[in-house]
Amino acid sequence: MAAVTDEIPERPLPATKRPAAIAVFGPPAAGKSTLCRALLDPARVFRLREHVSGQTLRATQTTATSLGWIEPDEVARVLHEYFTSDATAPDSGDVLLDNFPGTGDQVHQWLSIMAEAAPGYRVVPVELDAEDSVLLSRAACRRVCADCEPDAAGEPRLPAAIAKANPSRCGDCGSILARRPTDEPRTLAHRILRYRRASAAIRIAFADHGLPVWTLDGSLDQQRHRALLTRLLTNEQGG
Ligand SMILES: [Zn+2]
Q1: What distances in angstroms separate CA 101 from CA 97, 109, 144, 231, one per listed residue?
Q2: Which of 1, 88, 152, 188 is most open to solvent, judged by the fewest CB atoms within 10 Å of its CB?
Q3: What distance in angstroms lies between residue 143's CA and the mean position of ligand 1's atoms?
Q4: Structural domains in the chain?
Q5: How many Å lie between the centroid of ligand 1 and the Cα of residue 87?
Q6: What are 34-52's pLDDT values in tens digits?
């Protein structure tokens, strides 16, 4: 409940807002990382791969023939650690999970960890989706910067700024940009297919816990996404 004060507020006090753990998932190149970056401070964005060792990442690398997964026990360890850390203390505000969960099993696993370790959070699942043609053309254009994004497995993933004067270079540090190996057309096609197969299970798993999945159109611009999410979070406030 809102705090009671002696002063009469000019506007109604906002209802007490429980922090939200917003899970942003969707097919590759839907714009998940870009959306997360636009919405919250990078410190408030959780990415599974940033919490596991380089050894684990290298052992689970995605190629055209193998779509690597991190072991469930390791995922559970990381989630538990993250949601019991100071970074996610009850008064620390909303967090975004970029590209998580990836399967229905991960939904169940995550929600049981939340219920036990971080019951103060309300979970808001958001799927960012787009037509395959949009995903393919975006992935063909996006580049990453190994210097701006040190990655434990040497596989940077976050979209880099492209220099205006020279599109082959990073707009932030000037290094030569690279394509993500997982954006190669054959690997990308596997990843999109894998996502399409997993998404129904993800939705069903959230529904099992009484959580509707909100879908954002990945072809809309960031401002529109921000407005939609703000409205969504405001409407969900009582939950
Ligand atoms: Zn750079």
Answers
A1: 8, 9, 23, 23
A2: 1
A3: 10
A4: 21-83+94-136+184-235 (3.40.50.300), 143-178 (no CATH)
A5: 27
A6: 889 888 888 889 999 888 8
